[in-house]
Structure prediction request, 394 residues.
Amino acid sequence: MDLSYILNELGEERDQYYNAVSPPVMQSSNFAFNTVADMRSAMSDEFDATLYSRGQNPTLNILRKKLAALDGAGDALLFSSGIAAISTSVLALVKQGDHVVCVENPYSWTDKLFRHLLPKFGISTTFVTGTALSDFEDAAKPNTRLIYLESPNTFTYELQDLEAVARFAKARGIITIIDNSYCTPLFQQPIKLGIDLVAQSATKYIGGHSDVMAGVVTGSCELIRQIFEHEFMNLGPALSPHSAWLLLRGLRTLPLRLQRSFESTQVITNWLAQHDNIDTVLWPFSTTFPQFELAHEQMQGCGGLFSIALKNSSYAKIEAFCNSLQHMLIAVSWGGHESLVMPAIASIPPEKYDVDNPRHQYIRVYIGLEEPQYLINDMQQALEKVKLLETVYS
Prediction:
């Protein structure tokens, strides 16, 4: 299916809404029926009916078709946040006594899901590095029900060989799910590599304007219906129609924004790699990245998110660099038009900072839609201020 068709036409029955070019926001929570028989039919199968917007909604259904098609999936479910999409789907797939294998250092709230929430229900998790297939082979048990992936993750960018993991999991009857927020369907299509379910924080690249919270899960019609009919409808993590409309708007420009961020990041990471005051640049498409070849094999492009470490890094130096930036914002998340930084020390008290722990030193950078030189100039002046401070206090 052609990308332009998916983004601009799929699911948009314009003759049903006065031929409006932009689909309307069907804000109604409730939908009426002409007969009791019609209501009975809708109530018997809310997955395929428009009954109550906690389940399905016309505006959401347009978006649902597009996101499923982008992933090459049978269907999709929309959620009020990325972690709602992940947590609801995982809860739908596991039961008491099951075991999960999860990659180390996933998104923080995903980590809490596996470490703190699921154990309350008798579900155990083994965390693995995941950079080798043997990590999963060694960790799997007879009661392993699910393998959770995040490739790449969003701080140190470790990859998993998705095709190899999917092949192993299918042979053992294990379901696989991946957080694909970093790449989006445009730069990585896990379902084509054999992964069962794909989750995304649509808050990020899909929305693209830092003004909507949303999540999505795509997969086979059977798995998506399984998630919908029980955990989704019981927990009620529904996306609002207006948020769905904002995501439809974001999809129109997704290829342009993603490519712009990718190309700018290439320029900026190359500049940083040559800078005297930069020790490390972590980005999957950098030639120095340990899994550079795998990144090129299973990713069609790379997001605008990477991490750096300053030379002779210290808590004060990291903080001074971030505070000295004039145009790049200090904030979480990514995927919008604005460039951001988020240092690891934002969640580490000064007394717990470990100068020998590389993860403590990393500053995560997101490159938005500004001109690359504009951002380079900003980082250069911040690095010069840090160097001046070092000179003064040395």
In short: The radius of gyration is 22 Å. The domain at 254-393 is CATH 3.90.1150.10 (Aspartate Aminotransferase, domain 1).
